[in-house]
Amino acid sequence: MRNAISYFLNANREAQSLYIFLNEATTLKDWNLGLKYLWDSGITRRANIVATGSSGVVLHKKGELLPGRGLKGNEYYLKPLSFRDFVLQTTDCIRDHVEVIEFPDALTRLKTSLEEVKIDLKWSLDEMYNAVNSVIPFKKELEYFFRIYLATGG
């Protein structure tokens, strides 16, 4: 990891600031020690490093071993997107890259329908039933999105 980050920073010497995203950093052995070395050596002065991981506990625990290195107060725990929010966020991008002629139009209608419907657990069963029924016509599109959602983790 240290070598890859050092190479990236050297290859982008002219940049004023850089963002480095370490996805699933906790899968790397001693990732926190690698970051500590880079910080202490001054290599990462103009870099903003974002380390992500599925285990917030491990990220937090290993992050505690990096005192004085800009972590305190800069920790954010993001929950995955709900399936509904995932569909709303990705519909436009997917619609622009789909080859089947009917599909983009259906995606536009699905997005409009989802924007209008959000189930509240305080609703009666009849209200929930009606809300769910409004998206049933988009079963094929929702199945398509659900496969992507499962593959990407939301």
Annotate the secondary structure layout:
Blueprint: H1 2-11, E1 18-22, H2 31-41, E2 47-51, H3 56-63, H4 83-95, H5 102-116, H6 125-133, H7 139-152
Parallel strand pairs: 1-2
Helix pairs in contact: 4-5
Short account of what is shown:
Helices cover 52% and strands 6% of the residues.
Can you describe this structure?
With 154 residues, the chain is mainly alpha-helical. The chain folds into 2 domains: 2-63, no CATH class; 83-152, no CATH class. It has 7 helices and 2 strands, in the order αβαβααααα. Strands 1-2 form a two-stranded parallel ribbon. It is elongated, with a radius of gyration of 22 Å. The relative contact order is 0.10.
Please give a handful of descriptors for the protein shown.
2 domains, 2 strands, mainly alpha, 154 residues, 6% strand, two-stranded parallel ribbon
Radius of gyration: 22 Å
Number of helices: 7
Task: Give the overall shape.
Answer: elongated
Please give the order of strands in the largest beta sheet. 1-2
Helix fraction, binned, reads 40-55%
User: Helices and strands: which structural class?
Assistant: mainly alpha
Give the strand content.
5-15%
Biggest sheet: strands, sense, closure? 2 strands, parallel
Find the count of extended strands (DSSP E, 2+ residues).
2
Tally of individual domains: 2
* Uncertain ranges: none
**H/E series:** HEHEHHHHH
Q: For the record, give the distance between the C-alpha atoms at the N and C termini, rounded to a whole number.
A: 26 Å
Instruction: Give the overall average pLDDT.
Output: 80
